[in-house]
Amino acid sequence: MADGDDWRVTISLASQVQVGQAQQALSVHEVEEDVRRQLGRTIVVGAGGSQIFLYAGTEIAATEAQRVARDVLAGHDIRAEFALHRWHPIEEEWESPDVAMPQTEAERQAEHQRLVDAETADSLDAGFGRWQARVEFPSHREAVALARKLEGEGQTVVRRWKFLIVRADNEDDVRELAAQISREAPPDAVVRVEEPGVVGQIFIPS
Q1: What is the number of other CB atoms lying within 10 angstroms of the CB of residue 96?
Q2: Reduced to 3 states, what is the DSSP secondary structure of residue 9?
Q3: E-assigned strands of the chain?
Q4: CATH 3.30.70 in the chain, residues?
Q5: Which residue in 11, 139, 152, 167 could disulfide with 129, CB within 3.0 to 4.6 Å?
């Protein structure tokens, strides 16, 4: 397995108290150093909520980190659940190692198209584009001018003061839209692509 892959061991604990205890136990044991010494591989430890994460660059390193962490926590009578996942660069989420990764360019394109189709379907179900390009202009006049131009091209635009939000159905479309806006907007306008979850929100400073 070549470096450059992303693997993660998720250690789920019953409470924040146990997270602290587990972090202390793993730190004292120096799990990161243990794996590096045995395999010449580096892992990174992180935490969030009631979970601890061990990030590795190979499946072998992740599996070894999981083994060491399991032994350490068992030795401290800390009960935990362990799960191993691999980052899927097209789906952009952690998947089971059993999920096959696309190997050829044709497979990668097909997988990407499937994701785009799913995003578009989500937007259609919601009744609006769930991806958005957010633009902040140096002046109100420039925001109004580009908003009118984009509306004339059939885009759905929300404008508030010096801010624009233009919606799209999927990530491909919104990145193409953001590139177009960047070409047409003033050089000091700020263009951002925003994922589902923040659509429809516009921050307007007081």
Answers
A1: 10
A2: strand
A3: 7-12, 44-48, 51-56, 81-88, 93-95, 131-136, 157-160, 163-168, 190-194
A4: 7-95, 126-194
A5: 167
How many C-alpha atoms does 166 have within 13 Å on its Cβ side? Answer: 28
Tokens of 203: 């921050």
Task: Look up residue 50 and give its amino acid.
Answer: S
Contact 52, 23 (CB under 8 A): yes
CB of 62 within 8 A of CB of 6? Answer: no
Span 186-197, pLDDT tens digits: 888 888 888 765
Q: What is the pTM of this model?
A: 0.48
Contacts of 46 (CB under 8 A, 6+ apart): 52, 53, 55
Fold of 126-194: Alpha-Beta Plaits (3.30.70)
Helix (H) or strand (E) holding 176: helix 171-184
AA letter at 175? R
Question: Percentage helix, strand, coil, to 5, in the chain?
Answer: 45, 25, 30
